[in-house]
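[job 4471] stage=fold_predict status=RUNNING
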Amino acid sequence: MAAFMSNQLDFIFFFYGLAFILLGFTCFAIARSSMGTTRAAWGMLAGFGFVHGLGEWLDLSALIVGDSPAFAEMRTAVMALSFVLLLDFARSLAIGWGLRVPGRWIHVLPVTCVVLVGVAYGLTPAHIVARYAIGLTGALAASLVFAWQASAASGAAKRFAVFASAGFLLYAVAAGIVVPAAPFWPANVVNYRSFSSVTGLPVQLVRGLLACWLSFSIWGIFCQQIAADISSARYTAYVRRHLTWTLVAMAAILLCGWTLTEYLGGIYRRNVQQEARADIDLLASRLAGEMATVEGMVKALAGSPSVLPLLKGADVRDEAAARATLDLDVASSGAKQGYLLNAAGVVVAASNGRAMIAGVPDRSAASYFRTSLAGKAGYQFVYDAATGALDYYASYPIREPDGTVVGVAVLTRSLDTFETDLRQFDRPYFFADPQGVVVMTNRPAARLRHLWPVAAGGRSPPSPIVRGFAKLSERPMLEKEVVDGSWTNVDNDRNYVRRRFVGQTQWSLVILKPTHEIFVSRFLGIVITLLVTIMALIYMLGRGRWVQDEIETGNRIRLQQQAIELGLRASTDPLTGLYNRLMLDKTLADEIARSDRYRTPLSLILFDVDNFKRINDSYGHPVGDKVLVQLSRFVPNLLRKNDFLARWGGEEFLMVVPGTSGSMAFQAADKLRDAISHVVFGEVGSVTCSFGVAEYEAGESAAELIARADGALYRAKANGRNQVVLAPQPGMSQAAPVSVDSL
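[job 4471] inference complete, writing structure tokens
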């Protein structure tokens, strides 16, 4: 599991950063809808989410394109800044709730501590102290303020606040206690490596999951606040569905994105494996070719008839023949040297007449000699620490006709040409002894360095030629002995490793294939996932806003309709639907003001149903009401658009006719009177109406104008009903009756 997760670090860092950026956007939305110190507090938490998410994406960049000391320092500073914002969120929110907390000067102490540790001890201790001093404190403080909020909330908002508090408490452990490994307590006990070994998960994945937990918990708090403000059961139900579907959609997008990323990385991974296999096959065959030539020639040398007499004390002629054969085989095989050893390991002949190395009288201790003396072919690589040369020794037993081994033939071939040819090899390769010490490579800094650590008590020590010259004080390049075809960290960089044992020895060729390009190919999947996530979030947030606006608009329209209905009820007559006296008073006042302002005529027509009491007495009040309703629906059809009709009370109706003189109003009233007399009112039959008309006189009050119209109506009644009477203007003596013919 740990090996699999280590291959997914790029997507994990992407997910980690995305989760905190989502937290930032959520808190930013809350800040926009808040006021005062609460707004500032949520703004700080939004800043924490944005900055911390950006920091994780910077870690992703370092993983893909490589790291540097300056870049690492910048990432540590960004991380520390995000934790300061988290700590200030808790401080600001506590201030908004009226709690007494220190000012922002409180942040100076931990930040100064981090800087001093960085200057004195380096970047990694500073990184760890930043997590202990600021990250742990900030996350615990945030957990406390959400717990405080939960105690004051109720219902779903309380549950979400509890979730947020628990999330920050767990984040305090994952981000403030689990730190990079360091040689001091507690970082040497609780660190990334120990966490991964216990859980099988990288801590970055756990932090990302906690960030998602926090994002949706805080989003839930925000949605519950909106639902409370809107007070809509529909919106509350929508919030529940929206949260559920958002979680499902985000999980599906991230899962599909990871699958796509893994697929794209798999394509490059297979290419890497094929290229690495071709490379190791090429190197191994190249080296095997040189070894095979020597091995074949030493076997032929040992079986040559001219060699055996030399070991048995031959004459000068036989010795010359044997030396000629030895020189020929050395030249043919490309060997650096060849010699013959007797059964005691003493050199009896050397190529070109050269003697053995001074101070080494025999080769009886050499492993290749002992192997061949036992009747087998011997093979051995020998590294000369003084010259840095690596030679390959091939030996073969020299036998009597009866099969008795009486000596050993040896050919030595230098691998300098092989090393020279491979210096331009573009990928790192290493030729290591059985203990993993590099004796040949195209990376000079790795020469004489251990590739992997030597297991205590489980391996033989390096050979006497190599012992003391390997850079044993340096950390091995690999964490453990390499297995062919594995993905492993080499000096903290991910590589694909191929290993091939050489010939019959335990020496091995190792090549490395850096995998930065794999992250580049996987990065395409990450970018696609990010774009799909952004589009999905835009849709979900947009739909949420659309539903909220729709509900708020519906509520607003409903309130407006209720207001209109209440206004109509206050200004209309419930029986006829005509305007009542309240609306009449306002309209008449407005028309009088307009008449005074523009000096235009204004008249008033007051009429009622003749003998209406007799109708009620004869047919009942319901029938009388029907007559009034039918009349109120008929009369508006004969009026102008700007004429105003209202029920004055009982069976009386009043019309305001602007822009009309008294005589014109009289004519209009008489036409209306005649039209009404021809209408059939159900079982009552025809009815008549009497009209009183009055023209407004400048300076006259509304009450005086109505009184004159009412007086004219009274006279119409007195004169026999079904008549129209025009009231005299103020100041005039009693007016004579007016008829239509006289106008």
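[job 4471] summary: The chain has four domains: 1-229, 297-419, 431-510, 581-726.
[job 4471] exit 0
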